[in-house]
Amino acid sequence: MKFELSHEGKILTLVDATVLERKQLQISLSKKIPNFNFFPEAVKRRIPNNGVVSYFHKDKYIPVGLWQEVKWIAETFKYKLEIKGLGDALFYNEVSRDEFQDWVDDKFEGAENHDGDPFIPRKYQVDTAFAILTNKISVSELTTAAGKSLIIFICIAYFQEKEISKKILMIVPSIDLVIQAYEDFNEYNEFLSSDNKIKLNIKQMHGGEKKDFKATQNIHVSTFQTLGNMQAQYFTVFDTVIVDECHRTKSNTIRECISKCKNVKRRFGLTGTTPKQGTLDSLTLQAYLGPKVIEIKAKELQDKGDIADVEIAIVELEYPEEVQDRFDLIKKDLKEDKGKLLKIEQDFVIKYKPRMEMIAKVISKVQKNQLVLFHRQAYGKELKKYLEENTDKEIYFIYGEIKKDDRGEIKKLMELGSNKVLVASFGTLSTGVNIRNIHNILFVESFKSDVIVRQSIGRGLRKHKDKDKLRVYDFVDVLNSSKKNMLMNHSRVRRTIYNEQDFKYVIKKVSLS
To answer: What pLDDT, on the 0 to 100 scale, is given for residue 212?
Structure first.
């Protein structure tokens, strides 16, 4: 197979290939939208090609971000591969790793944090920043608590000082992360000595902030929801795009924003969880941002003592015999409709009073600060009220309707003191939010998403002076005699994820009779 770079460096154009090679490219770079068959017919009719998304257009064109995927296909199927023109279009070779380290050492010389301790980036953080610098399109997979904000700050500082980039757009998934990025970057700049500070002029853009679309700030940090309302001309001023929590790039709005940035020379994403290779989400992420260039796993940083160790207790809640008999019959009747069966199980367990009582007892006994994560708003409100009435803990509550200022105040309060409980929705607290003083995390509703599992545990991985390890309580509902109900299936998926991440766990059985 022979390719050449075209369309101003954005497309790989196939110039020579056998029929078999073209066919394999079509197969490998085309995937059906997950669960497409379960979409309503009205939705299906608006999606072309029967739900199949192909990144091999007209048997000829492939987004340049998939160049590593093309290389993998060639290696897997023993095809000869030649790609002309990658060079300067995708790589920056003007600085060596040692030269970059020298620059970092000089930039952070004399830097001190608020406690007066030296503020020095760790080696893996410098390695990641260097990988981003030398690859003009890239994705970095970094376990939560690896210090993504500092890595991005290092990149921004280098880009600005060396005049590699003049105008940067950073896309984040939530208002919380807009504010957090603004505060983190300014704080890091404050830590630097007076001679080493960078020109940092950040524009925050989100629902509660005034939208000055002609803002002259050199860095714009925005939610993708806000950017979805912007005219195409706005995006043309940026030469660099950063996407934080980039596993969300499957969102149409994020993809549209990236596509509108016609003049960007660099684009890169960071996430704690990249999609599995060969999936549609993986192809989409690479197509828009580029290949994964570095991976830092939790176990690696735990072994170095950079983040907290994890201890997981899987608490299997065994329901009374009459409940199990009932769900044996329900499973038999609905064995062909797993979606309906799952909903019945979910609705039942959150309304089962002995379960609520058991969870409250655990929360009452657990020491130090706790993060209790739920999915459904109504259940979260009910749980919060029950804990307030039946425990002596200090209870805080965050979900989608809580205002950003109130969220910020709650997070500050959680950093102070101990034996506090934050009841929060997965949507608001599972991704990107920093609270170091979290010692325990409780999963009180079931899920099986690899992204949610890893991101949620990540909320407690940051080290704290009083934290010996992070303890996770994973509540599992055993609803039928065979232990093969849908919520137990979710638990088995979570265990697989724990094993993949080298998280140790024990299983504890608790009777609700």
So the answer is: 60
